[in-house]
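Re: that chain you flagged

S.,

Sorry for the slow reply, it's been a week of failed gels. I finally had a moment to sit down with the sequence you sent. For the record, here it is as I used it:
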Amino acid sequence: MGEISSIARRLLQVSPDALLVVDKTGVIQFANETSHTLFGYDPKALVGQPITLLIPGRFHDRHGAHLSNYLAQPINREMGARITDLFAIRADGSEFPAGIRLSPFRDGEDTFVAAAVRDMTERRMISDALIAAREEADRANRAKSRFLATASHDLRQPLQAIRLLNASMHKFIRDLPEMSDLVRHQELAIDSATRLLNALLDISRLESGAIEPQLSPVSLAGAFADIVTEFEPVAAGKNLQLEYAETRSVISTDRTLLTQILQNLVGNSLKYTEHGRVQISQEFEDNALILKIEDTGLGISQDKLGRIFDEYYQVGPQGTKRLGVGLGLSIVREVTRLLGYSVTVSSQVGKGTCVRVRIPENRLLADDALLSREEVAETRASVPLTGRLVLLEDNDSVRKATELFLSLEGFEVQSAPSVSQVQGLLLTMQPGDVLITDYHLDGKFTGLDVLLQLRTQRRFDVPAVVMSGDLQSMMRVVKTSIPKCRFLSKPVDTKALLSAIAEVSVN
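Prediction finished late last night. Pasting the structure tokens below so you have them in one place:
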């Protein structure tokens, strides 16, 4: 090698990396002072030694081939930066993970390779710690998902029984105004507990990443009608008009998640509206479909608009009592993000609020000859049931409460607590009968398994209502549409249950 200037040599000697220069035969021609700290050899003693002196013996065979290939096409190259299995060995025989930067250069007719070597032990430890932390986080998320599925089912079961018993009590005390008022207050408390449970489970599920959208064509007319049907009792209780606009739009979306957006927005509007109306509508703007939920409620001051999507944040006039826990709009934000939508809010204090959900144009499907508003309402109208209701529910409290409620509604109900005990009833089912089943049953069968097996045995589409305490997870499993079958989330609203029975009973 040619002479190196004194300044350049000094810079090389004090480099933070160990610097080695190797010739094309793999012999070390230069080693800086830092190499002593890293390898434990006197730099002068390294000169003239083969580079394999610093490489663990198990890598010697590979190194010769690597050196030949590298010199055939010498380029700047970094090795070990991604924490691969690249190791060096010290004078005391200890090994360490190494990061190496190679730079070829020529000196006259000779080719050399400059190698900057760094101890990657700390980086490897950090990387291992990050990998372990990620694996632990993944395990925690999986455990959280399992907990949420269990909690969704187990916590909703008693609420389901209480709701049905409350609805049954209304039948017994129609002529007792004082008792009716107490039962009505009980109903409001049940509704409040249901909303709180749903909000807490939903936000936890969203934050854990346990939800993956499943897209399918969804009629907005049907989605709007379902929401209005669900919230009509709340609106009627406050003397509010709850309306939805005519539409024939069809979008590709996750039906469950879209319903969740509408439920939270409409529920929030009704919560903060004392006079006037809440309206659901749509409009087209800038290559997108805009869903609008407008109300004539209390309104939100401009200084608070920026915080309304924060978790647990609530707005309202000074002195307004706390309603819920402030998770509804936070859930809307997370769900819209998950679906690729955006949401904005405009409001005036004392005049009302308008929430706009922007759905990109690529999610719109061609309008179909779907049901009009009147036709949608008509399909949801109650029709007489000519047959029996066969109830399969493994929770004793829920089964007895459901059977009592449906019997008081005038239905003939026969029930069973298990798949084995319901078989006799299933074998006698005739056209006009309806199966009502919980999805999560003890044992290896689900309510849906029972339904599909029953349809195969009876050779006709037995109408069914399938209920679940974890509807979202269930729908991820189902994925495809099942004719004459309605899926309801526990705790089921009694009006929604009656509507579902009427709907699947229509021939």
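What I noticed first: DSSP finds 16 helices and 19 strands in the chain.

Talk soon,
D.
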